[in-house]
Amino acid sequence: MDVFAPLQWLADWITYDLVGLSPEGKAGPALDFFLYDVPKVLLLLAVVIFVVAIIRSFFPPERTRTMLSHSRLYAGNVSAALLGIVTPFCSCSAVPLFIGFVESGVPLGVTFSFLVASPMVNEVAIILLFGLFGWKIAALYVVSGLFIAITSGIIIGKLGLESWVEEYVYQIRMGDAAELPEQSWPERFAYARGYVAEIVGKVWPYVVVGIGIGAVMHGYIPDDFLVQYAGPDNPFAVPLAVLVGVPLYSNAAGVIPLVSVLTEKGMAMGTVLAFMMAVVGLSLPEAIILRKVLKPKLIGVYFGINSIGIVAVGYLFNAVLH
Asked: How many domains does the chain have?
C-alpha cells in the first residue's frame, strides 16, 4: 500500500483538473512533480527528524566528545563513523566540535572519520533514499559512506598530519564535560518536537528550491540531455559528477529530489549518488569554515581523499547496479 497515494491524487487533481494543464505537455508533469514531492519530502523529514532527535538525546555533543576521547585507531574510526550517523554534523558547528574533539585527546584520524560520516551518511539521506529507491540502495549508500569515512580517517591518522592543524587549537582548554542529567521520556519528546520545528523551519526553503529545480528538470529537460554527458556509457561521468557537486552547497533534503529526477533521466545510480555525496560532504563553505582550524594542506588532503573515495564508490555502484 502506498501511504503517499492521497498526495499523488491531490497533486494530479490540482494540476490536471483544477489548473487544467495537460499531462502530455511540459508544465503539467513539472507542476505535478512539485506538488507531490514537496509535502512528501517534508512529511518524511518531520518523521525522520523526530526519531533521530530521540536518538540524539542520548548522545549530546559533550557525551559524544567524551566517548571518542577514549577511542583509538581502527576501533575508534569505526565508532566515530557510526556516531556520525546519529549526531548530524554541519559546517556551522565545525569549529567548536573540531576544537573540542582535538583538545579532548581524540586522535586526528578518528576526528576526521566523524566529520566525514556526519554530513555524508546522515539520517535524512538514508530514510529518503529508502523511500525513493528501496532498502538495497539505502544500504549500499550507508555501507559505502561508512567505508569512505573509516578509510579516510585511518589514512589521515597514519599520515601523522597533526602539525597541519592550526597551533591555537591545541592550546585551547575547554575543561572536562560536565555530567549531564538523564532526561525523562516526556523531556525527550519535548526536545524532539522542538528539534523538528527548528530543523524543518531551517531546511524547508532548501527542500522547496531543490524540488523546484527537480520539477523543472523533470518536465522540461529532454530525456537524453543528461545521458549524453553523464550517462552510463560515459567512463568519466562519475568524476564529472563529483567536480560539479563540490562547488554546490546543500543538504541531503535539498539534493535528494534531484537524485530522483537524474535517475529518471537516465543517469546511472552510482554517478548520481557520487554527485550527492560530493554536494553534502565536500562543500566549499565547509572548507572555508574549516580553514579556521586546519591549514590549507590538511584541507587539501581531506578533500582529496574523500573525492577519490566518492569516485571509487560511484564506479562500484555503477558496476553492482548495472
From this structure: 1
Domain that holds residue 61: 57-177+221-320
Query: Is residue 1 situated within a structural domain?
Result: no
Question: Residue 66 falls within a domain, yes or no?
Answer: yes
C-alpha cell at 135: 532498502
Q: Is residue 206 part of a domain?
A: no
Q: Which three cell numbers stand for residue 172?
A: 585551547
Question: pLDDT per position in the chain (322 positions), as tens?
Answer: 467 789 999 999 999 999 999 988 889 988 998 998 888 878 877 876 787 678 767 766 566 666 666 556 678 888 888 877 766 555 445 555 666 677 666 788 888 888 888 777 766 677 777 777 788 888 888 888 899 999 999 999 889 888 888 887 777 544 444 445 677 888 889 988 987 887 778 768 877 877 787 788 777 776 556 566 666 677 888 998 888 777 665 566 667 777 777 887 778 888 888 888 887 777 666 677 677 778 899 989 988 998 999 999 899 888 887 6
Phi and psi at 16, nearest 5°, equal: -100, -25
In 3D, which of 288, 185, 214 has the Cα closest to residue 40? 214
Q: What's the grid cell of residue 268?
A: 546511472
| Residue 23 belongs to some domain of the structure | no
pTM of the model: 0.67
